[in-house]
């Protein structure tokens, strides 16, 4: 069936048209910038100009610049500095978040939670919290 379709589409009668078939993971620069969450193509073009993305760059028979998506996101995230207003999402659990998740149960063991009301807390209560957090951090570092 493919041969019949390619023969019908061929400009030369009887000679099958061998069409360039893009890999489903090859996209244009615009499509790559959208897939990576950028607001414009400028970051992708800057990385291409510097040769940082040469391993992902492809050229179609028409001369169009294409990019292989497989592994592109990880490479771009490694090459650029994340801005505060960046569309690139943060990792779900940062090391600081994990660390406080380990410290919190130790702090709760030291504190008598029934004695603590809701905030705002006094300066004395804050100083106790700081001291307890330091003791918990020390206990955690000695355990690891």
Q: What do these coordinates show?
A:
The structure is a single chain. The protein is mainly α. It folds into 2 domains: 2-79, no CATH class; 95-143, no CATH class. Helices cover 47% and strands 7% of the residues. The protein has 6 helices and 3 strands, in the order αβααββααα. Strand 2 (57-59) and strand 3 (65-68) form a beta hairpin. Helix 5 (95-110) packs across helix 6. The longest helix is centred in the C-terminal third of the chain and has 21 residues, at 123-143. It is elongated and about 75 Å long.
Provide a quick synopsis of the model.
The protein has 144 residues and is mainly α.
Order the strands across the largest sheet as they lie in space: 1-3-2
The whole-number mean of residue pLDDT values reads 77
Number of domains: 2
Note the main sheet.
Answer: 3 strands, antiparallel
Percent range for β-strand residues: 5-15%
Cα gyration radius (Å): 28 Å
- Element-by-element helix/strand order: HEHHEEHHH
Structural class: mainly alpha
User: How many H/I helices?
Assistant: 6
Keywords:
single chain, about 140 residues, mainly alpha, three-stranded antiparallel β-sheet, 3 strands, about 45% helix, disordered N terminus
């Amino acid at each position: 069936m493919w041969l019949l379709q390619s023969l019908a589409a061929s400009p030369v009668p009887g000679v099958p048209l061998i069409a360039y078939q893009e890999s489903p993971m090859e996209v244009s620069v615009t499509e790559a910038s959208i897939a990576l969450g950028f607001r414009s193509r400028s970051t992708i073009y800057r990385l291409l100009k510097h040769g940082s993305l040469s391993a992902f760059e492809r050229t179609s028979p028409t001369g169009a610049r294409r990019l292989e998506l497989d592994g592109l996101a990880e490479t771009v995230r490694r090459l650029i500095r994340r801005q505060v207003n960046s569309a690139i999402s943060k990792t779900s659990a940062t090391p600081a978040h994990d660390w406080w998740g380990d410290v919190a149960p130790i702090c709760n063991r030291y504190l008598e939670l029934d004695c603590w009301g809701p905030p705002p807390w006094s300066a004395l209560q804050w100083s106790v919290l700081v001291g307890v957090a330091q003791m918990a951090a020390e206990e955690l570092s000695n355990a690891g």
